[in-house]
Specification:
Distance between the termini: 41 Å
Oligomer: single chain
Strand content: under 5%
Structural class: mainly alpha
Number of domains: 1
Shape: elongated
Helix content: over 70%
Largest sheet: none
Amino acid sequence: MKNNAHTLHDKLEYLAKATGLTETELVAQALEEGIKEIFRRSITEAYQAGQIPRAQAISKLGKEAVAEIDYAREAIERDVKWGVKGA
């Protein structure tokens, strides 16, 4: 079993030493990266649910990211159709 007993302070202290950044800089970076990820997930979910149009998803995520989302959805749809045929 893994030991996850390290506190946030322990992690920040290690990262500060390893990167040369201050703890404040690390927290700011973590916040920015976390917000970016939450934003990406939110836009992806909204697009998949049909709540925002493809053009808006592209403007927020980029053409490549939306193409990957579309490809994944199409692959799942193909798999489901194939599975239903075989049933």
